[in-house]
Amino acid sequence: MLKKTPFYEKHIEMGGRMVEFAGFCMPIQYKGVVKEVLSVRECFGLFDVSHMGEIKLAGKDAENFVSYITINNPKALEEFQVQYSAMCYKDGGIVDDLLVYKFPDHFLLVVNAANTEKDYEWIVENAKCKMQNVKWDVVVENISEKIAQLAIQGPKAEEVLKPMFDIDISRVAYYHSAMAKFSGIDVLLSRTGYTGEDGFELYFDAKHALNVWDALFKEVPELESCGLAARDILRFEARYCLYGNDIDGTTNPIEAGLSWITKLDKETFIGKEAILKAKENIKRRLTSFVMERGIPRKGYEIYKDSNRVGTVTSGGYSPTLKKGIGLGYIDVPHHKSGGTVDIVIKDRLEPATIIKGAFYKRGRGE
């Protein structure tokens, strides 16, 4: 049986085309993928992201424990600040990428839907033992089923949402959060997202889900509902990694371009030794490329001078750039920006130009 988010009936009412994703029945699109993508890029769009996992960590050792299981540094966070991070296995492979929220009395880890149970079990297992077999003073709780989550993304998201809250949401900085009232309901408002645009994510008790949804559409009837396909294109254009495509247990954060969140100056964290070793001999890099002809897809082979040098991990047509774009692991030194490679598409070699960083960079709110 597939799980359903609290908004399942709303998706059906609005004509959402439902598919299986990460064990959930989710809308892949409503009125059309391109329309939804452009709505977010030009105005705003709404996403049901209640399938995401939420894991709460409390207790005297919570901060030290989060630092131990993640590669970024949660000790640098202020209260209500948010941090992008990842968890790694001892061999340096990535368990999951996630958001870390710091609150006055606990931490909240927001993890990928497909990994929620795996992540929770891995965290609990690591919480059982410490140096000298002394148990961490930390309480780990999977609260995913209690939480509903909506994301409103786009350059006009702040403008349209501002009158609906009891706080001035313009004062919530990028990658910060705040407690607020929305239509009389307590919500955690977070200036984060997965689209490359400015915007907000709302977390609240799942029992209020329909009230929040109805209030949003009452105040903003022109709000565009968006599905998984648009979300994937948007994150891809902004070069945000997707677990299972661009990162997984076989990739380390250095080759994945996540050095910026890998704090190797921390005293210790799971996977540090392996990542330090890997850093000395990086053989491939997660690389961005664009195509003037042809659409790359996951799994397509990448060639340079008749030699296979990599594989596409994410690929598709970009409605924003109006061309094919892709991500893939390419062998060093063929990954350098400005260079060219060939993508195998239906037994043809189609040229691609390597670029540095994201395909789309406007509007992140940074």
UniProtKB/TrEMBL annotation:
GO terms for biological process: glycine decarboxylation via glycine cleavage system. GO terms for molecular function: aminomethyltransferase activity; transaminase activity. It is an enzyme of class 2 (transferase). Keywords: Aminotransferase, Transferase. This is Aminomethyltransferase. The keyword Nucleotide-binding does not apply. The keyword Amino-acid biosynthesis does not apply. InterPro entries: GcvT, GcvT/YgfZ/DmdA, GcvT/YgfZ_C, GcvT_bac, GcvT_C, GCVT_N, TrmE/GcvT-like. Its EC number is 2.1.2.10. Residues 284-361 form the Aminomethyltransferase C-terminal domain. GO terms for cellular component: cytosol; glycine cleavage complex. Substrate binds at E201. The glycine cleavage system is composed of four proteins: P, T, L and H. Belongs to the GcvT family. It catalyses: N(6)-[(R)-S(8)-aminomethyldihydrolipoyl]-L-lysyl-[protein] + (6S)-5,6,7,8-tetrahydrofolate = N(6)-[(R)-dihydrolipoyl]-L-lysyl-[protein] + (6R)-5,10-methylene-5,6,7,8-tetrahydrofolate + NH4(+). The glycine cleavage system catalyzes the degradation of glycine. It comes from the Bacteria. The gene is gcvT. Residues 7-266 form the GCVT N-terminal domain.
